[in-house]
Amino acid sequence: ETINGCLTQHLSQLETPGRALSEALGNLHLHSLPDASDAAPGSVPGDTLVPGSRHLKCVCYGLGNFATCVIARNQLAFLLLFLEKCQIPRRHCWVYDPLFSQLEIAVLDGLGVTVLSENEEGRRCVGGEPTVFYMPHCGTALYNNLLWSNWSAGALSRMLVVGNSFRGLEERLLSRVLHKNYPYVAKVLQGLEERGLPQTPPYADVFNDMSVHWFPAEKLLRLPPDTWAFREEPDYGDCEDLEIIRSRTSGPSAASPTGP
């Protein structure tokens, strides 16, 4: 229900001059509407979580070693159920964790999702396509990189992030640390909506401190103009507890990959 409500607001959030944002996004798929063969395995035709959600893409970072960790297995199960309920074809879901073993990659291939071959460090542009990012318990730098890669009202309004609570990060980190090390997380706090995932005792360690975040265009457009003027690539040289595994090509010249 939490994600249902968030997706509904995400997909119908703003009317831009001349047409609704939902219409603009729908036009991207006028010539490639999914047919029955494109539906997610196990889904029921017409039983979509939210109208229009079958046009969504999904990217999952930081799932962990689900072959040996029960928490990661539960998070993987949630991902598969989410894809099924939203009728997002599994081939439209991209997954990556630098810790995946060859066995885990083979399992994911067998499940029909696409395993990315390179460590993007979260630097993926949505490319104009509405995209859900599922990032359970990832390092803060990964969220910061994702925001930087999509730092415009147009791109952010097409994103929905399921991951660590941004408000929780604001509460736990010193303000100067948040603004220095994770400036894009800090700046987006005034332009987001957040709803915490419900906590149930059997899964307390699986989804604790996780929320659904979306970025209504009307809120983003009310942010001060200088919010968007600063767009320097994140530099974590002075950051101590980075909590992410860096790519070998990390550096100022590393480009942000766009969605497939």
Topology readout:
Layout (H helix, E strand, L loop, with lengths): L1 H10 L3 E2 L2 E2 H7 L29 E5 L8 H17 L6 E4 L5 H10 L2 E2 L15 E5 L4 H10 L3 H4 L2 E6 L1 H7 L2 H7 L1 H6 L4 E4 L13 E5 L2 H4 L5 H4 L31
Parallel strand pairs: 3-4, 3-6, 4-5, 6-7
Antiparallel strand pairs: 1-2, 7-9, 8-9
**What is the overall number of helices?**
11
**Major beta sheet, strand line-up:** 5-4-3-6-7-9-8
Helicity range: 25-40%
Major sheet size, sense and barrel closure: 7 strands, mixed
Q: Per DSSP, what share of the residues sits in E-state strands of 2 or more residues?
A: 5-15%
Can you tell me the residue ranges where pLDDT is under 50 for at least 5 consecutive residues?
Answer: 12-51
> C-alpha Rg, in Å?
18 Å
Organism: Crocuta crocuta (Spotted hyena)
Family: Belongs to the SRR1 family.
Pfam families: SRR1
Domain SRR1-like: 55-214
Notable traits:
260 residues, alpha/beta, Rossmann fold, seven-stranded mixed β-sheet, two-stranded antiparallel sheet, 11 helices, globular, SRR1-like
Descriptive account of the structure:
With 260 residues, this protein is an alpha/beta fold. It has a single domain, classed as Rossmann fold. The protein has a 7-stranded mixed β-sheet with strand order 5-4-3-6-7-9-8. The protein has a two-stranded antiparallel sheet with strand order 1-2. The longest helix has 17 residues. It starts with a helix and ends in a 31-residue tail after the last helix. The relative contact order is 0.15. About 15% of the residues have low confidence.
In short:
With 260 residues, the chain is an alpha/beta fold. It is built from 11 helices and 9 strands. The strands form 2 sheets. The protein has a 7-stranded mixed sheet with strand order 5-4-3-6-7-9-8.
